[in-house]
Amino acid sequence: MDVFDVVIVGSGPAGMGAAFELALKSPNLSILIIDQERFSTGGMRNDCKMNFTFPIGFPEEYWTKEQAEHYLEKAALYLKPNIMEKSNIAVYQRRARRLGCRLLEIRQAHLGTDGGLILIKRLLAELNALGITLALGETMLAVNNDNHYITTDKRDIFYKTLLLAPGRKGFHFLQMMLQTLGVPFVDNIVDIGIRVETRLEHYPIVQDYYDPKFYFPEKVRTFCTNSGNAHVVKEKYTTARGDVWYSVNGHAYSADSKNANGLVNFAILKTVKFTAPLASGQAYAENLGLQAALMGGGRPLMQRVGDFRLGTRSKETSFNADLYDFQPSLKDCCPGDISLAVPAKILRVIWKAMKNLDTIVPGVLHPSTIMYYPEIKLYANKPVYLDNHFRVKDRVFLAGDGAGTSRGITGAWASGIRSAEGILKTLASTSKD
Fold first, then answer.
1. Report for 59-73, 237-251, 272-286, 304-318: range of highest mean pLDDT
2. Which residues contact 127 (CB under 8 A, 6 or more apart)?
3. Who's near 30: CB < 8 A, 6+ residues apart?
4. Integer CA distances (angstroms), 16 to 11, 111, 176, in order
5. CB 356 within 8 Å of CB 216
C-alpha cells in the first residue's frame, strides 16, 4: 500500500504551487501529485495569460489586497513573468468613463499556448528534481477520510493530508468529492456569453494592451482576449447523464510566432447569480449548452454581426470573400441565429455592452465580426471553509479554480501556496500526536 505525507489531486497551477511550497519548506516530505490526464493540465496549457494585479483572479470573499499581493510575489518567483508594456490606456479609459464603463489596468504576462507548454515542462522538471512523485494518467475515484485513503483507477493510496486542486474542468468531480466528505457547498453563479472574433484592425486596442479588461454596467465584462496568431476553439463537456455539449474558448500562440493570422478574439460575459430560489449554476449552464447543441446539430453556433443587425440568421454564404472578409478560425460551428438560443435578458445587456465597446474602440462591430455561442464559465463551487487555508475537513484542503479559491493561473498558484501553509501546520500537529 502506497503511503504519502501529502497527496495532491490536480497538476495545474494550484497543485504545482502547493507542491513547490511544501517541498521547499519541508524537503523530507513524501509528496504525490496525481492527474487523470496524461499531461499536466490547467490554464498554463491554454494561451497562458497571467495577471498580477488584484482583484483579477482573486475572489474577494477569500482574499484581501494585501494577502493577494503577498502571494503573487511568491508565485512570480516560480512563474518568472515578463510583464508586458501598455500604452495609450488613458485614452480608452476616458472614453469608457463617459459611458459608465471601466477599463482596468492590469500587470500581465503572456506566453501563448506554445510558451505555456515550455513553462510546464520546466516546472515539471523542477518538481522531479525536488523528489516529488508524479502520477499522470491516474484518476481519483473516491475518498475515505475516516481511514485517510483515496481510491484511484489503479490503486489505494494512504495520505496524512489531502489537497484537492482541480481546475474548472474538474467542477463535477469536486462536487462528488464534497458530497462524499459531507462538505456543504453551493454553485449558484455562472457566466453566460459569447466569443467575439474580428480582424486586428477592427480592435486595435490589443496593440496597446494585450488583454484589456472592460467592465460594463449590469455585470458584463470582457474576458480572455487573444490576438496575433489567435484561434477560437471548442471545449467538450459531458453532463452526469452523459449528454454532450460544447462551449467555445480562445487561445493564441506566442508573440514571436511566424504564423500570425491577423485575428482577435475575446469573450463578453454576463454574470448570473441565483438567489431565490437558490439554483445550480452548473445545471443552468448545462441546459443552455444542450439547447445550443440541439440548434447547432451538436456544434456551437456562430453569426456575423452584419446578419445579426439585419435580424437574419447567418448561412454558409455569410462567410464569403466580399464584405464578410475573413474565414472563422473555428470552422466546426453551425451558422445560425444566436438570438434563438441566448436568453433575451442576457443577450440584451451583452449587445448593449458591445455597442459601448464599439464607441470606445471603434470598428469592433464591423459587419464581418463573428459572434460564437455559447461561451460559459462556471464560477466554481463555494464550499464551507473551516479556516484561512481552505481546509474543509480534518486533513483535507482545497485550492484552485474548481474550488472557488481563484480564477486564473496566478490566483490558483497563490491559493495552492496558502493551502500548503495549512497542510504544513496540520502535519506538524499530527506528528506530535
1. 59-73
2. 16, 19, 20, 23, 33, 134
3. 3, 4, 5, 6, 133
4. 6, 18, 23
5. yes
Cell of 206: 490589443
pLDDT of residue 433 exceeding 60, the answer is no
Calculate the CA 101 to chain-centre distance. 23
Share the mean pLDDT of the chain. 93
Q: Quick one: average pLDDT of 116-130?
A: 94
Say which amino acid occupies 91.
V
The answer to whether the CB of 141 falls within 8 A of the CB of 153 is yes
Give the residue from 109, 44, 35, 47 showing the smallest Cα distance to 72: 109
What are φ and ψ of residue 63, in 5° steps? -130, 135
Query: Would you place residue 417 in the very low, low, confident or very high pLDDT band (cuts 50, 70, 90)?
Result: very high
Whether residue 335 has a cis bond before it, omega within 30° of 0: no
Contact of 414 with 17, CB cutoff 8 Å:
yes
CA-based R_g, the chain, Å: 22
Environment class of 334 (CB within 10 Å of its CB; exposed 0-12, middle 13-18, buried 19+): middle
Nearest one of 325, 327, 351 to 338, comparing CA atoms:
351
Task: Report d(CA 23, CA 32) in Å as an integer.
Answer: 11
Determine contact, residues 402/137, Cβ cutoff 8 Å.
Answer: no
Burial class for 276, CB neighbours closer than 10 Å (0-12, 13-18, 19+): exposed
Domain with CATH 3.50.50.60 in the chain: 2-85+109-186+382-430
CB count in 10 Å sphere of residue 151: 14
C-alpha cell at 387: 479556516
CB atoms within 10 A of CB 385: 17
Please determine, for residue 325, whether its predicted confidence score (pLDDT) is greater than 90. no
Q: How many residues does the chain have?
A: 433
Find the DSSP H helices in 12-51: 13-25
Check whether domain 2-85+109-186+382-430 has CATH 3.40.630.40, yes or no: no
Query: pLDDT band for position 382 (50/70/90)?
Result: confident
Q: Are 119 and 413 in contact (CB under 8 A)?
A: no
Cβ within 8 Å of residue 192, ≥6 positions away = 269, 270, 272, 285, 288, 342, 343, 346, 374, 375, 376
